[in-house]
Please model this.
Amino acid sequence: MKWANPIKYKIKAAFIFAGLTALLLLANLLERNNVADLNKTMTSMRNDRLLPATFAYQIDHLLYENKLLLAINKSSTKIKANMDSIEIIAKKYEATVLTPDEAAKWTLFRSQLKQVPLIFSARNSPQQAALQEVHFNQLLLSLDQLVQIQVSESARLMDNGKKAVSSHILLSNLVAGLCLIFGLVTLVLLSLSHYSLHKPVKGHMLN
Model:
């Protein structure tokens, strides 16, 4: 039954179209996941890395200002206002997502910060001044370690973002290549179907 040949080719072409549709749906799903991951990475980089680093620098600035105020025996009103500002900034920092290492170092910094009013209350004793200097340096070291964590985590997030972009490009190229191949195969099958349908019939040989 020669009439069945065109149908056979058309069925194959239909299966290819169905496979191509399924491939495009799968690619679309993977693409959405890649975009969601990339968006999550960029959001985390801003909210959990860039802002905490900014908070750390703000605290650092206020601590330095308090140190200068203590050195010139300025009124404690400004010092207390700075400490209140540090507390507000610290709560903003705590509202971000902390890594385990960051959480441990932040807990240490908070415990050091709580000792500031007691240690910095006396300013006349040389021993107290030396203790204040040591404690101040410890605070700055803790802040510096927290900033270094932000830098490391930002680099890790950047790597994740690059991987998501690379996956997007690879997937797009793969889908484009497969679409081209499937399209060519479909054209070949439809051409064979048309050829089978319109194949010229040889005339009977005369006796």
Residues 4-197 form a domain with the Four Helix Bundle (Hemerythrin (Met), subunit A) fold (CATH 1.20.120). The CA atoms of residues 122 and 176 lie 73 Å apart.
